[in-house]
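User: Study the shape:
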Amino acid sequence: MQSEADTMLLDRYLPRYDVTETHAVVVNADTALTWQAVRRSDLSRSAVIQALLELRSLPNRLQRVLKRQPPGPARPPLTLDDMQRAGFLLLGESPGHEIVFGSVVQPWKAVTGDEPAPQVEPGRFAAFDTPGYVKVAFNIRVEPYGSGRALITTETRTAATDPASLRRFARYWLLVGPFSALIRRLTLRIVKSDAERRAGLMSNTRPPDG
């Protein structure tokens, strides 16, 4: 029987999927400090992540130009609390352990599509099956890894709601998949750096024994 710590929250929201991608990193800091870094790290401070997010948002900016709409605001700092602004819905959280985000998308219609993506409540995300869409969900999970260390993993899953959407998304993912993987690897690198820096600061300010 699996314990709550062994069961991934991600499985609750996207248990069946077409594509999965997982990345992990060991952090020389305890789980509490690592989780704080997960929640607070500003991902936009990476020039590479900024460039990739700009590339990802290019269709939306082109759509604004085509519709003669004013440009969007400059990109502010991006933490997990800002994921909704980036187009993701908070599906669920196990504080200190795992957080899950998701979205329902039609990436192949980024420029030409006029219909907004459906708004799906977290409790209905797993069951959503309207044809013509792809569900995307990803988690960030923190677990103990030996004495005073933590393991961060992030898994991204996608599930198309019909065969035609799966074929369209497969072509799209061939182009975008490597950049998505790079964003996640850089995200883990930033979180690791922040957690270990905080652990080092706390170690340096701790009074000596005796």
Helices lie at 10-13, 31-40, 47-56, 58-66, 163-205. Residues 64 and 70 are 7 Å apart (CA to CA). Residues 58-67 have pLDDT under 50 and may be disordered.
